[in-house]
Each structure stands twice: as C-alpha cells, then as structure tokens.
Amino acid sequence: MATTQNTYTGNGTNKLFSITFPYLDTADIDVYLNGVLQTVTTQYSFANATTVEFVVAPTAGAAVLLNRNTDDTALQATFF
C-alpha cells in the first residue's frame, strides 16, 4: 500500500494545513488529530485540492497528521 504523509503541530489559531503529496481522490486522505482519525465535514473539510481546513483550530502542541491511504485492492489503473 502506498503511503505518504505530512505532519504538523497545531498552534491554537491555524486551521489550514497543506497536503504536499499527490493523491487521486479525497477519500484517500486520512486526517488525524493527536492520533485520532477525524471525520470529513464534521471535523475538517478540503478548502481546496491541497489544503485541509479544520472546523476548530487544533490546540497548541496538537499533533496533526495528513496521511495518504490508497486502497490497493481496487486499483484505478494497472500497468504492465
């Protein structure tokens, strides 16, 4: 399974975090706050194709992880 990630530390005011790796579908992006998987639309959304926006800014010192988790059982393309 291909996995790429970005890690950040919350500061209590910033709600926007950049996705700096390629992905095909927003469903492939997992967002964690202090190790807890967050729910899209309830706790965060995609401000644009390269930015995750939290509903509430992560507290100062909070661990933010943006992780690509691509399903390898239903490939979108097969290369030979």
Describe the structure.
With 80 residues, the protein is mainly β. It contains no helices and 7 strands. It has strands at residues 3-9, 16-18, 29-33, 36-37, 44-48, 51-54, 63-69. Strands 1-7-3-4 form a 4-stranded antiparallel β-sheet, with no helix packed on it. A hairpin with a 2-residue loop joins strand 3 and strand 4 (36-37). The chain is elongated. The two termini are 18 Å apart.
SSE topology sketch:
Blueprint: E1 3-9, E2 16-18, E3 29-33, E4 36-37, E5 44-48, E6 51-54, E7 63-69
Antiparallel strand pairs: 1-7, 2-6, 3-4, 3-7, 5-6
Structural class: mainly beta
Overall number of strands: 7
What oligomeric state is this?
single chain
Approximate shape: elongated
Termini Cα gap? 18 Å
- Name the strands of the widest sheet in spatial order: 1-7-3-4
Low-confidence stretches: none
Query: Which sheet architecture does the biggest sheet show?
Result: 4 strands, antiparallel
Radius of gyration: 13 Å
Give the SSE string. EEEEEEE
Number of helices: 0
Q: Tell me the fraction of residues in β-strands, as a range.
A: 35-45%
Task: Give the fraction of residues assigned to helices.
Answer: under 10%
The overall average pLDDT, rounded, is 90
What tags apply to this protein structure?
mainly beta, four-stranded antiparallel sheet, three-stranded antiparallel sheet, 0% helix, elongated
